[in-house]
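Researcher: Good morning. I'm working through a list of sequences from a screen, and I'd like to move beyond sequence-only analysis. For each chain I'm collecting a predicted structure so we can compare shapes side by side. This is the next one on the list. No need for commentary yet; just the structure.
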Amino acid sequence: MRYNFTKNSKNILYVLMAIGIITIIIGFFTNAPRTWAGLLVNNFYFMAIALCGTFFVAVNTISQAGWAVALRRIPEAMGTFIIISAVGMILIFSFGHHDLYQWTHSEYYNKFLSDGKTLNPDYDKIMVGKHGFLNIPFFTIRMIAYFIIWVGFTYWIRKESLQEDLDGNIKHYNKSIKIGAIFIILFGITSSTAAWDFIMSIDAHWFSTLFGWYIFAGLFVSGLATICLIAIYLKSKGYLQEVNENHFHDMGKFMFAFSIFWTYTWFSQFMLIWYANLPEEVTYTKARWDHYRLLFWANFFINFIFPFLVLMTRDAKRKTRILIVAGTAILIGHWIDVYLMVMPGTMGNNWHGFSFIEIGILIGYAGLFLYTVQNALSKAPIMVQKHPLLKESIAHHI
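Model: Good morning. Structure tokens for this chain:
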């Protein structure tokens, strides 16, 4: 059975995308720096969720986890959004880097002014020290390399899966394990370096050795929530009848576990900065504490306290209504998390609360993401047909 992507659903998503486009146009005329920041927040957020789709398929393939096979088409479809977010990121950096990344300003690298004698007041030793890594040509090369790897492996994994449906040859499964293993290695490297490039380099004077893990934790739990919510939606429409409360229980356990793991990385990063009390470290947290305090604490409570309490019991993980509430909270919370990574470094003290710009762009990106995922779901059987672990997945019971 294939997903029926109805005309009414498409029209609703067209409206959402139109809201996003109109917001971007108005934003560039009223507040271009904030518009670029809003684009970066939402492009990175949905790119991370899409990347989680490919990671989820790869890690469950190489671990031969049978339970996840019944859900496989959902993360495969999510991964197809990576190419759209790749184009978006390239455009954002190409045209908006001056408003987003301080290290792209040339005045920080000249010790003297044009006369060759007068010291340049903007000269920045820290920027100069990082210039070998943070420069536009090298950044562009790395960015393109990330997207070639992510998009290439996403489509390669999906191609083998769809071909397996047609001929049922075990070679596709064996090949998927090898592809997934290679991807996991490359993902471990590129997910961290991309986090440094796209997000951490906004605050060019600051760095954290935990940042790659921190981004991964938020990426993975957001992707898990998305998979779970889409699966619940599809089941409510009569699809994925093989998926039962046991599958949702496992998804709930993953969401619960990685919410705690995200909190571990969040607290570890915060605690080390607070304990060391070094000026070059404290500035990052201080900027968020002084001007974004409400969001700072909302980030902690929504992403840890709420899912921890809601998903603690066994019964909660097996009830779709509770999973909908928890999954929605996780998605909202981790959007706030990305928002807090970007806005203080780009808008600084000029931020005075949420504006229509980032909210409108969020609506547009959500529409585009859901359109891409539903379109991909409609292109292939929504349940894998000849996967060697399919029977094990259908019979899954815990």
